[in-house]
């Protein structure tokens, strides 16, 4: 049953990605060409919100299905992810040079990291598409935990309510900013293999929803000062995370923009050194980590499980910042060294 649910869910979103209208934008040029992306993710998300709202009114037990069957769904999602990664590997290797196919070590790397940069099926770019079932499933899991708490206890705690508001804003803003994703590291540089597939279809919806799962059983009242503190932490992190990404996105589209009331300044005419990007090289990572902290601390100290997400994200962001620094150093040379002199810190001023 669970594998049918997973296949039906992904299949409906794939069909929606093909048929729903949306602006078509050109991606960045690469050795693989210049891909096109149809930006209709927000429509799919809003449809999911409407359906979840209808289920809350007329069939809350159906809405709680993911929470009640998360183990079976986890197994099914893993089966789907491995099957998709295998299909991508087989398709990609067919067009590979003979020398690339001869090494077992190369074959393992290709399976994990992928062969093709921008695979597309039926005119749908699979890499950008996979963010949609990933984040919409995360939204539905969170709402499912809300429904489970209500069905089990007849009410929703203040902690759960605030968690849902924070997460809804975060996911809705992603789809609002979907066009900016085509300039991210994953889209521009990562090949599409098991690593990204498993991350999208398994890691994000099941692991990142651990705070919601934990909050089902947390009924301790949330103190007013704690709620205000978490809200301020969320707003600060969101401002930093989205503000930095939005500045870079606008700069890539138009080098003549103004940031914080002043013309955008660059290093070597290439690297933005205004706004957040003049203060630190990866403050968008810092902001996102603060956002996740804001709703994780709502879980209190009843379980360490939700804090594993923070530990994982901190390690991931530090690793990415280091890897991006190495890549940019090789790409820009002296210009990058000058940028690092101007923006001295990666994520935390005076510390890192």
Features:
352 residues, mainly alpha, two-stranded antiparallel ribbon, 17 helices, globular
Describe the structure.
This protein is mainly α. Helices cover 68% and strands 5% of the residues. The protein is built from 17 helices and eight strands. Helix 13 runs antiparallel to helix 15.
Summarize the structure.
It is built from 17 helices and eight strands. The chain is mainly alpha-helical.
Q: What is the string of helix and strand elements?
A: HEEHHHHHHEEHHHHHHEEEEHHHH
| Mean pLDDT reading | 90
Radius of gyration (CA) equals: 21 Å
Per the principal axes of the C-alpha atoms, what is the gross shape?
Answer: globular
Structural class estimated from helices and strands = mainly alpha
How many DSSP-defined strands? Answer: 8
Strand content: 5-15%
Order of strands, widest sheet: 1-2
* Ends apart, CA distance between termini: 48 Å
For the biggest sheet, the summary is: 2 strands, antiparallel
Percent helix range: 55-70%
């Amino acid at each position: 049953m669970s594998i049918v649910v997973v296949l039906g869910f992904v299949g409906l979103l794939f069909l929606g990605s093909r048929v729903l209208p949306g602006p078509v934008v050109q991606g960045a040029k690469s050795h693989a060409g210049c891909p096109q992306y149809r930006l209709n993710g927000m429509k799919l998300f809003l449809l999911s919100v409407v359906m979840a709202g209808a289920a809350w009114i007329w069939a809350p037990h159906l809405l709680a299905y993911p929470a009640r069957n998360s183990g079976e769904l986890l197994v099914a999602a893993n089966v789907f992810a491995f099957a998709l990664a295998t299909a991508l590997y087989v398709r990609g290797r067919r067009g590979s040079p003979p020398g690339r196919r001869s090494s077992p070590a190369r074959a393992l790397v290709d399976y994990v990291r992928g062969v093709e940069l921008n695979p597309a099926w039926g005119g749908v770019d699979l890499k950008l598409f996979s963010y949609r079932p990933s984040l919409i499933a995360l939204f539905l899991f969170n709402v499912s935990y809300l429904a489970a708490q209500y069905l089990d206890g007849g009410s929703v705690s203040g902690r759960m309510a605030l968690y849902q508001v924070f997460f809804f804003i975060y996911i809705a803003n992603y789809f609002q900013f979907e066009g900016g994703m085509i300039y991210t590291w994953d889209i521009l540089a990562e090949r599409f293999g098991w690593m990204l597939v498993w991350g999208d279809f398994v890691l994000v919806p099941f692991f990142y929803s651990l705070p919601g799962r934990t909050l089902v059983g947390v009924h301790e009242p949330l103190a007013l000062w704690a709620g205000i503190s978490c809200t301020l932490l969320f707003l600060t992190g969101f401002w930093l995370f989205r503000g930095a990404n939005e500045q870079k996105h606008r700069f890539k589209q138009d080098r003549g923009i103004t940031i914080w009331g002043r013309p955008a300044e660059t290093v070597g005419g290439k690297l933005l050194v205004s706004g957040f990007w003049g203060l630190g090289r990866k403050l968008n990572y810092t902001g996102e980590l603060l956002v996740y902290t804001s709703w994780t601390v709502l879980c209190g100290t009843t379980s360490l499980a939700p804090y594993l997400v923070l530990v994982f994200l901190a390690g991931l962001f530090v690793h990415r910042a280091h890897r991006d620094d190495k890549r940019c150093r090789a790409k820009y040379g002296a210009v990058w060294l000058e940028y690092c002199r101007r923006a001295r810190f990666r994520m935390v001023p005076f510390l890192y």
